[in-house]
Amino acid sequence: MSMDIYEPGLSAPTTPVVITGGASGIGLAAAEALAAVGRPVALWDINGDAARYAAARIAAQRGVRATGVGIDLRDLASIAPALDATRAAVGCPGGLVHSAGTVDTASIDGMTPESWDSGIAVHLRAFAFVVQALQPDMAAQAGSAVVAVTSINATLGNALNPIYTAGKGGLLSLVRSLADRLAQVGIRINSVSPGQIVTPMTRPAIEALPNGFFEKRILLERLGQPEEVARVIRFLLSSEAGYVTGAELVVDGGNISSQRG
To answer: Active-site residues: which are they?
Structure first.
C-alpha cells in the first residue's frame, strides 16, 4: 500500500521536546499542545516546583512521559545537568522550544548593567548554548527541530522594554544563522513572533492600561491566547513543516501598531 502524503503529521516525530519557560504562559501551552499529540515533554523553568507540578499534571492527563526540571538559564553550567535529568526521565530530546523570558519596563532611563546582562542572558545567550548542548541528541534523530519564541517587538520596537526587544531581535538573527548550520545535520530551526498574548508575564501591563488599548490596533480586534501560539509551535516542530527552516511566523492577530500608535 502506498503512503498517503497528506496523512496528518502533527504527532510526528515522536521524540521528546525540551521547553524552556515551560511552567507558565506560552511555554506551558506548548508543552500541553505537544503532549496532546503524544510527544514526551521536559519543562525547564526557573520555578522548579511549578515545572514539576505541571509535568505531573500533563503526564496524568495526556498519558505521555513528562518531567519538570528546575534551571536558571543565566547559569550556563546548569544546562548539562538539566539535560542529563531530561534524558533519564523522558529520553533524548528531538525538539526544543525556547520560551523562557523576562520583561523589563524601566525603558532606557532605568536600565542597568545588571538588568541588561540578566535579560540578554535569558533570552539570547541561553538559547545559543542550549542548542549547542542538544545538537548531538537532535542530530541523531530524524525530524528534529527547534523553535525560538521571539516577539513582534523585535520588529516594531517598544519604548518600555529595550532589553526584551534587543534580546528578541537577537533571537531572530541567531535563528537565521543557526538554520544555515543546523541544516547540515538535519535539524530545522524557526522562530514564532507572538503579538499581544494574555500570559502571566503580560497580564499586569494589560490590566494597567485602558480597556481596548491593544485591541484597537489589532485587525482581529482581540488579544491572543497562549494556545493559539502553541499550535503554531507544534506545527513547526512536526513533519507537517518538514520544508520550513530559517523562517519567522508572526502570530499577532494582524497587529498594525507602532510604538507611538
So the answer is: 151, 164, 168
Count the helices and strands in the chain (H runs, E runs): 9, 7
Q: How many CB atoms lie within 10 A of CB 243?
A: 6
Q: Tell me which DSSP letter residue 210 carries.
A: P
Instruction: Please report the sign of the dihedral spanned by the C-alpha atoms of residue 214, residue 196, residue 250, residue 29.
Output: negative
Question: Residue 2: is its pLDDT beyond 70?
Answer: no
Q: What are 11's three cell numbers?
A: 504527532
Q: pLDDT tens digits, residue range 155-197? A: 988 888 899 999 999 999 999 999 999 999 999 999 999 999 9
The grid cell for 104 is 523589563
Percent of the chain with pLDDT strictly greater than 90:
83
One-letter amino acid of 176: R
- In one-letter notation, the amino acid at residue 35 is A
Residue for grid cell 510526528: 12
Distance between CA atoms of residues 154 and 168, nearest Å = 5
E strand or H helix that includes residue 250: strand 248-251
| Phi and psi torsions of 60, nearest 5° | -70, -40
